[in-house]
Every structure is written in C-alpha cells, then in structure tokens.
Amino acid sequence: MFTGRTAELAVFRAALAGDEGAPAVLFVHGPGGIGKSMLLRRFAAEARAAGRQVLEIDGRIVQPTPEASNGRPRRLSPRPARS
User: Fold this and answer.
1) From the CA atom positions of the chain, what is the Rg in Å?
2) What pTM was computed for the model?
3) Three-state secondary-structure class, residue 59
4) Please, which pLDDT band fits residue 71 given cuts at 50, 70 and 90?
5) How far is it, in rounded angstroms, from Cα 13 to Cα 26?
C-alpha cells in the first residue's frame, strides 16, 4: 500500500501535466529503505494512467558507461501498471 509522499506526488503530477514552472527532471535520492523504489513505481503507474509510455531501466544491470546509455533500446515493451 502506498501512503504519504504528497509533496513528491504533487511535483511529479505538475511535471507530468507540463505545468509552467514544473521541473523537467526529477532526481529521486536518499538512503536505502525510505521508499524510493515504491515512489518510482507510483510515478510510473500515474504516467501510464496518463497515457505516457514508461521505460524502466534498472541501474543495477546497466553498465555506467557512455556506450551503455547511447543509442536506442532494442525493444520497448511497456509493463502493465502494478498495484
């Protein structure tokens, strides 16, 4: 169950809607165990509900090199929204 994070959700929703003054990039950071992954899953679910395509990249399996981030993904297969 997702609770709290009202301020973070408001910023994300403003960015998703393209509101004037909303950030173009959001940086989610913090110590382990505070709910960053859950928050990102919520962001993804809301983006999908708004008709946006979501591309999830797991930084644990992508090499931190310019070559790994250049080019286009070979295949985009949007995941269904998680509850």
Assistant:
1) 14
2) 0.71
3) coil
4) low
5) 11
